[in-house]
Design goal:
The protein is an alpha/beta fold and 270 residues long. It is 27% helix and 20% strand. Helix 3 links the parallel strand 6 and strand 7.
């Protein structure tokens, strides 16, 4: 499917000494600039972080009546459990992320100090780029699998589900992963995230660090029977998957989720 060349990434430089980088991929129909309000908030407590906000190429989206918009790869249906996927196009998008990571490495930032993440379709892309070994389809460290500081998955889904286990990197189990999702998400249903996280922590062997259900405001308390991760050893930011669900929230980022994301980033790239 024909797509346009993407605009260069939006770069938000650190305000202090540069020791870590966060590469964050936007969702369908958005641009890197759309995430500036979020990065502006997060950067206040992380002056050492450089933010890289790439822009997806523009192309037709089958699920949107073939309307042309920024997208990392085509989506044929929003029923993500049954939708057909273009593996080659998804792998091409993952190579774009590989190249962005390698640029940071070439600039002197170790891969262990690089975090990649995304929202919605960008989150699906980050999962593949961060956890998969792609000898034939990857670039640079993506061929054998990156050893990164962490992954951030916001309102996302697991791409290439039928073959993801075979693609998994030997380094995936040591990756700290933060996955945030609203229970009332009407675009990427919470059930989709629940199935994906169960697959990652069973078939793929990634440790479930925590699975919490939370309120949406900054001061909201945990509503599950599990303890807050900050109260247990090996919680948020340790190797494995931290899955946090936000009650009644939709397809966006709530205040509590933003606070949790900030905590996660400050733990994996302090």
């Amino acid at each position: 499917m024909t797509t346009s060349m993407p605009e260069p990434p939006l770069i938000i430089p650190p305000t202090g000494k540069h020791t870590a980088s966060v590469i964050f991929c936007h969702g369908l129909g958005d641009t890197g600039k759309g995430w500036c309000p979020i990065t502006d908030t997060l950067s206040k407590n992380m002056p050492h972080v450089k933010w890289v906000l790439p822009n997806a190429p523009t192309g037709r989206v089958t699920a949107h009546n073939k309307k042309s918009m920024p997208r990392w790869f085509d989506i044929t249906s929003f029923d993500f459990e049954k939708a057909t996927e273009d593996r080659a196009e998804i792998m091409t998008a993952a190579r774009m992320v590989d190249e962005l990571i390698q640029r940071e490495v070439d600039a002197g930032v170790p891969p262990e100090r690089v975090v990649i993440g995304g929202f919605s379709q960008g989150a699906a892309l980050a999962l593949l780029a961060g956890l998969a070994s792609r000898p034939k389809d990857g670039a640079a460290g993506g061929k054998e699998g990156w050893k990164l500081g962490g992954l951030v998955i916001l309102s996302g889904w697991l791409p290439l589900q039928s073959s993801f286990q075979q693609l998994l990197s030997s380094r995936a189990a040591q990756m700290p992963i933060f996955w945030g999702h609203g229970t009332d998400d009407n675009m990427v249903r919470h059930k989709v995230a629940d199935i994906a996280t169960k697959k990652l922590t069973t078939a793929c062997g990634i440790r479930m660090v925590e699975s919490l259900t939370l309120g949406t405001e900054h001061n909201a308390r945990c509503t599950s029977n599990l303890p807050q991760s900050s109260d247990v050893e090996g919680g948020l930011g340790s190797p494995g998957l931290s899955f946090r669900s936000y009650i009644t929230w939709n397809h966006s980022v709530c205040p509590r989720e933003l606070r949790d994301l900030s905590d996660f980033l400050r733990r994996v790239v302090p």
